Structure formats: structure tokens, C-alpha cells
Amino acid sequence: MIELLAPAGDLEKLKVAVMYGADAVFIGGKKFSLRARASNFGIKEIREGCEFARKYNAKVYVTMNIVPHSEDFEGIEDYLVELVDAGVTGVIISSIAYANIIKKIAPTLELHLSTQFSASNSETIKMFEELGFSRVVLARETSLKQIEEIKKKTNAELEIFIHGGMCVAYSGRCMLSNHMTNRDANRGGCAHSCRWNYKLTKDGVLQHQEDEYLNMGSKDLMAINAITKMIDIGVKSLKIEGRMKSVYYIATVVRCYRMLIDEYLKTGRLENIDFYIQEIQKAETRQAATGFLHNKVGPNEQLYNVRNDVPTKEFLGIVLAYDDETQIATLEQRNYFEINEEVEFFGPKLKNTNFVIGEMYDEEMNELDVARHPKQIIKIKVPFKLKPWDMLRKANYAN
Amino acid sequence: MKLLVDLKGLDNLEKYNAHGLIAASLEYSTHNDKSFTLDEIKTLNKFAKANNKIFIVNIDRIIEEEELEAVYNYIDKLLELEIDYFIYSDFAILSYFLKKKLTKKLIYDPKTMITNYYEADFHNSYNSLVAINNELTLSEIKEVVKAKNTMMEVYGFHQMFYSRRALLSNYEKFRGEELGLTDKKLIIEEEKRDHSYPIYESKHGTFIYTSYIYCLFKELSELKDLVFIRVNPTFLKEEKVFQVLDIYSELLEDFSKAEELYEKLKLVDSRIDSGFLYKKSVLLKEGVK
Fold first, then answer.
1. Which domains does chain B have, with CATH numbers?
2. Do A123 and B284 touch (CB under 8 A)?
3. B286 pLDDT exceeds 50?
4. CB of A342 within 8 A of CB of A315?
5. CB contact residues (below 8 A), chain A span 310-349, against chain B
6. How far, CA to CA in Å, does A14 sit from each of A5, A299, A332?
7. Which helix (H) or strand (E) holds A148?
8. Which of A260, A392, B2, B137 sees the fewest Cβ atoms within 10 Å?
9. Neighbouring residues of B112: CB distance < 8 A, sequence distance ≥ 6
10. What pLDDT does residue B287 have?
11. Alpha-helical segments (H) within B34-193
């Protein structure tokens, strides 16, 4: 069965990812993991995350994908024992030294080769099968055609990135951040230097106007139109990137791919792929393309003249409770909204449902015209049943 | 400890004062400012053998699925020449040499991945060598060399970025202008920083190099377990390379002359820098929790 694998930067995101349809999540511990700022799972949180995931028959993988220096071995054996005890299914690593320790100390943990190793062909994957790896995350530079060939020739499970940020270099082969900011990307400190503005000169002559720059950053990956092919090929795991993304992003993207996969597995076709593209765009704040999946990348896959992501304000609130008798939903506000505004509820089991806000109150049931304070507790009369963790967003997101 | 150098051409071969010569494969190496056809490699191999020099072919590119058969055929042709060593970064190459029972001819050089003793020592199980990451501190390097199977790039603009993407020609296409940006050295400079970085796009991708010439010299007396040291002449004039090789060769004969020779080395090119030898990288920007 194909696996939808989601990122989780903290326990709340883990729960949202699982409830919204992820078959597995990947998380980072406080040590040994890339995305240092997103890695805030202590062992206590990892244990709680595993217990939660188990209720939904979902798995938890832990990233230990730094390229370790000598000091990065301290405490690893105790950590591995704790991961096993917490109920973790597998670890994502790029270090063969780590693999050897894991096989000795925690042989029940699955070994997944990180994309940091840029595995791009079947012979490399067979080498890692021999070394005891059960899964390989392929380089993001592989095309669908190559993935198909690799699948035919290998036994290891293949994990493919389907959505989210893309390194512009081969993963693990970029030291820009280290040299420019002294932050080592291979140990979790990536400063995203590839997304900065650069002057380009040839023989001392600027190759563009004074107020222009060379950009090298990549558009994000969005593989909606390639999922059915990946399922047909026999890819084991479809991976969404973004441990630092919001709960709303996780909910929207995971739910969208969940619906798409389920429709294809149930019917053998997709009725309306545009629906899924529109769904994803409700959460997406960055430009996206299909990366290397269909071809070598051209300018359409690159970002030019884009300085910053625009924060989305589509996410309005998250449902905390619903009273069947009074039909009052209690929400935590995340962005400004007001009465008479058309909004959309959605959830793990709730189809997109539009609704115009009529009555709105604060926590003490004082009437409100607007919900303007982040994290404010808001009560709204809603004529259909909601559940905790359902979410509220703008209905006219495209406008 | 033996001195290796990447070749910059077919002429002046006798001036390359080193124990070993490295030829970059035109088809299967990452960017080196000079790479060689198979016929040229045959010529260079003859020269090396006639002059009792170690001869190494660099095939360090990441290999794509449809290239496997071709790269293995290519290796077979090279093996007939009895090449001494092959520099590689893709485990597909290791896989093939394992089948041939020839892994003792391999030097694993992924640039970034050999960062600790254990990673290096793993390759001892294949009786093969590894290239140490150039972003390590001196004390970290001292730990790694204990594996006794290591090579280190000790001089040159170091490749710090390898992308499959054609970043410069994509930029040309975006601009809609023919700017002639490929197959030549260009310079990028970040808008708020004053360091300049060489960038080069070849048919194999885009490569960015350090803003300085990485130089590990005086410290070599503390790293005598290094099997090979490598001078990388990318973007350097051949005359300078010859001077650098003479100085390193003299050092290897007498480490006590390190201070005096280092002063001479500085005169060859002042852009030398110790990189991370005495500077530890951090995980987070200061103030970020």
C-alpha cells in the first residue's frame, strides 16, 4: 500500500498531519537532525507522537540526517534506545557510520537513506540494500522515467518527494550557507543562500542592469499531476516536505493528496485534477513547478525576482469544540475575519463547506463584529456539525 | 604522504612536480577547468607510466540511471589501461568495482560526506581511499586521518556547490538574451556581502567555488597519516600551479622548512585562506532559538 508521508515540526503538526490523512510522519529530534529550527521534539514529545500516530495506524520516522562530525556521535546510542522505546518505526539518515551504530544498537529500526545522499540510480540503491537499508529517498533530480527504471531493478522501498521546497543543488552537495554565513547546511543550519540575490560578472563586466540580480533559487515542487504515475510505478512513499510549515499548510496539503490518492486507488482515475490543484493553492505561498519529474529543469522551474514569500491569510481559525444543542462552534482565531463574510470549513472528515458568518461572540458570549486578535477564542453559530481540528478559511481565496 | 595534482593540459607535463597526476574525464567528472577525452587519457597514462608517476582518472559525477551502462563500458576501457586510481562520488561506481574486485583502486570523493573517522574507516572495508571534507577544523581532520586511508585537497579554489541545473543558461533564457555565460568562469557576489565566488556551468551542471584559495600547508606536519594531498588548479594559471607544486614538494621532503616555504607560497598567490581549519561552523544564526 502506498504511503503518504508528511512533515511535522511539532506535536500539534504531527497530530494534524495524521488526522488529515498522513500514513506516516517524519520528525526531527533535538539532535542529529537537519532543519535545526524545526526540530523541537524531545523524547517525551516523540513518545506522545508515536502513541497518537498508533491510534490512527500511522508510523513515525525520525530524521537523523545530518552529515556528522566527530562530536555528533555523543549520546547517539542512548538516543537510539530511547527512539525504539518510544515506538519510532524508522530513521532517515545519510551517514553510513550512523547506519552501522543503528544496526548494532537498535536493529529493529528501519534504515531509510536520506536524499542528502542524492541516490540517483539503481546500482547505488542496491549498494544500500546490501548495507541494510530498507528504503531509499531518491535524489530530487530523478525523473519519472528514471524512477520507473530504478523500481524495476531494485527491491528497496522508494520514497519520492512530491511537494514542497527544493534544493537547487544536489542535496548534501551545497556548502553555500556554510561559506557565506558559517552555518552548515549539512548539520541543520541552512541559511537558504541559494535564494539570495547575486551580482553576476564576466571579465569584470556586470551581466545585468545595476538594479537586477542573478537568482538561482528553485520553485517549490508540486507533483499533483504525477501521483497516479508514481502509484502505478510502485513507489512506496510519497513525501511532502516542510517541517517548518504551518498547521494549516500541513492540513491542506496532506488532505489534498489524501483525497487524490484515495480517489485514484478507489476508481482507477481522477475525475477532476483541477480540483486538487485549486485545493493545494489554498495553502501555497510560493510558486511551484514539477522539478525534474518530467524533464531537465528550465527557467520555468527557477525563481526570478522573488524576494520573499507572501504570508497567506487564508487560514482563519481552528475548531476547538462544537455544541450540538446550541450549534455554537468554538474556534481559535488565526487571521482576521468578520460577520457577513463568506468562509469555508474543512476537516479530516468534512468536505469543503461554505458558510456566511452570522452570529459571532467572544469567550464570554459578548457579540462581536470582527475577530481581530490572533489566538482569540471565538464562538460562531454554525448550522452543521463540526469537530475539533476542523479548520476555517476564506471562501474566496483566489480573489 | 604523496602529492597529487589535477592536470590543466597535455603540454608541460614534465613540469608537474608531483607524485601523481589526475585527469578529469570529459564525460564523467564534475567541473574541472580542463577535462580529457579517452584518447587524451591514454596519452597521459603513457606519460605517467613512463615517468613513474601515479595516474588517476576523475569520474566523480553523480550518475543517472540511463548512464550506467555507458559509464561501466567507459570504466572497462580505462581498466585495460591499468589506471592506478579512480576518484568517484557515486556509489554506482563502487558497486561496479566491487563486482570487479578492484575497490583498492578507488578514492571516494563526495566533497562533503567524509566528516568523521567512522565514515572514512567504513571505506577501509573495501581497501579504498576517501577524500576528507574541506569544511572541517584542523582538530576534526586529525581525527579523520587516523583511518589511514585519506586524501585531502590542500590547495585551490574548492568546489562548494554542485547542481544538476543549468543555472546560468536558464538565466539567459529567462532574460531572453544570448549572454555567453556557459563554459567559462564567471563571478557571483551576493548583494549584501563583498566576497566573490567563481561560478561555472558545464554540460554536467553548475558549480560554485570558494571565494579564496583553500590552503592547508603548515599543518601538514601534524597530518602525516594522509595518504595523498591534492593540489586543485581550477581557475589558476599553469605557471602558478608549477610554483605551488614545487613548494609543496619541498615541504614533503623537509617539514621543518614549513614556515619559510609558507612565506614563498603566499607570494605565489595572496588569495590563500585557511577556510574552516580554525573556524568552527555553527548550526544556527546567532539569536535564533
1. 2-159+212-273 (3.20.20.70)
2. no
3. no
4. no
5. none
6. 11, 35, 18
7. helix A144-153
8. B2
9. A67, A172, A173, A175, A186, B133, B135
10. 36
11. 38-50, 68-80, 91-99, 117-122, 138-145, 167-175
* Tens-place pLDDT, residues A106-150: 999 999 999 999 999 999 999 999 999 999 999 999 999 999 999
Is the Cβ–Cβ distance between B109 and B131 less than 8 Å? yes
Torsion angle, CA of B94/B111/B277/B20, rounded to 10 degrees?
70
Q: Map A245-290 to HEC letters.
A: CCHHHHHHHHHHHHHHHHHHHHHCCCCCHHHHHHHHHCCCCCCEEC
Phi-psi region of B194 (alpha: psi -120 to 50; beta: other; left: phi over 0): alpha
Task: State whether A123 and B96 contact (CB < 8 Å).
Answer: yes
> CA angle at residue B260 from B256 to B262, to 5 degrees?
100
CA A121 to chain centre: 25
Q: Which residue of B has its CA nearest to A170?
A: B163
Mean pLDDT estimate for chain B: 95
Residue A396 clears pLDDT 80, i.e. is over it:
no
Inter-chain contact B284–A172, Cβ cutoff 8 Å? Answer: no
Domains of chain A plus CATH, in order, are 3-301 (3.20.20.70), 315-394 (2.40.30.10)
The Cα-based distances of A148 to A87, A136, B91 in angstroms read 33, 14, 20
> Facing residues of A319 across strands?
A331
The neighbour count for residue B267, using CB atoms within 10 Å, is 9
Return the SS3 of A146. Answer: helix
Residue B158 backbone dihedrals phi, psi, to 5 degrees: -95, 135
| Whole-structure pTM value | 0.95
